[in-house]
Design a protein that fits this description.
- By secondary structure, the protein is α/β, with parallel strands linked by helices.
- It folds into two domains: 2-103 and 209-236, NAD(P)-binding Rossmann-like Domain (Rossmann fold), CATH 3.40.50.720; 105-205, Dihydrodipicolinate Reductase, domain 2, CATH 3.30.360.
- It has eight helices and eleven strands.
- The strands form two sheets. Strands 2-1-3-4-5-11 form a six-stranded parallel beta sheet, sandwiched between helices.
- The longest helix is centred in the middle third of the chain and has 20 residues, at 105-124.
- The two termini are 15 Å apart.
- 39% of the residues are buried.
- The structure holds nicotinamide-adenine-dinucleotide.
- Nicotinamide-adenine-dinucleotide binds next to helix 1.
Length: 245
């Protein structure tokens, strides 16, 4: 497939390597200096765009792809309050959009375990829950998109929790998300349940950015030629995932 990379930073460069390894063509690379090239002419023959930029620019980049009929995979975090607008726009225009707050396949297994554990805790009671996320110091948003997805998964299943707070004392119906910024850590997430007598932890540590870029490229392969709005749930429910091509 012929691809466009929008955002040539840490993720864009990692995605470039994986695209090449998997035999895909890179027809366009957009970053701040040439962002005006994100237009109809340059997107004309692109099968799918991969967008990893900044919270301030993701919305416009994705909208631009949808309006020009280019399927787009995005993983930019810290802006998703406006994601529903773009999902609606995509459906109206017959476009294709794949968004994930975390493209690591293992994190998406964690999302499923997190929901199951919250449902089990809901039945037994007696545990207080908290989330901790640790990332590199250049990360622009806090809490991480992944921690928000984890909190939402808990809120769906644990009837005592209705919202989350970041780095503030939590009220009884809130989940505290603690954000730590340290070194070059790609991402560690821990969900911790604590009773008077014991502690249960679900913990996931990403070892490198490669896993994130690979997930995004697999999502792009999945999206290519499709219409509609997709997430990792659609991808993981699909038994054509091959991570070792
Ligand atoms: N969903 C996931 O799995 C996942 C994984 C890693 C990072 N992320 C998110 O992806 C985003 C990018 O992460 P990164 O580590 O590559 O950051 P980065 O800062 O290394 O790269 C961002 C790049 O976007 C460029 N950019 C800024 N404005 C632009 C515009 N208008 N058009 C095109 N390019 C523009 C910047 O110049 C920079 O090169 C962040 O929001 C991060 O949280 C998501």
């Amino acid at each position: 497939m012929k691809t466009a990379i929008i955002g040539y930073g840490k993720m864009g460069r990692e995605i470039e390597k994986i695209l090449a390894e998997r035999g895909h063509e890179i027809g366009l690379i957009i970053d701040v200096d040439n962002r005006a090239d994100l237009d109809t002419r340059h997107l004309a023959e692109i099968d799918v765009a991969l967008e990893f930029t900044t919270p301030a620019t993701a919305y416009e980049n994705i909208r631009c792809c949808i309006d020009r009929g280019t399927p787009v995979v995005s993983g930019t975090t810290g802006w998703t309050a406006r994601l529903p607008e773009l999902e609606t726009r995509c459906r109206e225009k017959g476009g294709a959009l794949f968004y994930a707050s975390n493209f690591c396949l293992g994190v998406n297994l964690l999302f499923q375990l997190n929901r199951q554990l919250a449902a089990m805790i809901d039945r037994v009671g007696g545990y207080e829950v908290g989330i901790e996320e640790i990332h590199h110091t250049q990360k622009k948003d806090a809490p991480s998109g992944t921690a928000i997805t984890l909190a939402e998964g808990i809120i769906e299943h644990l009837h005592t929790k209705h919202s989350w707070v970041n780095d503030l004392p939590a009220a009884p119906d809130q989940i505290e998300i603690r954000s730590v910024r340290e070194g070059d850590i790609p991402g560690i997430h821990t969900i911790r349940y604590e009773s008077a007598d014991d502690r249960i932890e679900l913990r996931h540590a990403i070892k490198n950015r490669r896993t994130l870029a690979l997930g995004a490229v697999i999502a792009a392969e999945f999206l290519c030629g499709k219409q509609g709005v997709y997430t990792m749930k659609d991808l993981l429910g699909n038994n054509h995932i091959k991570t070792d091509e």
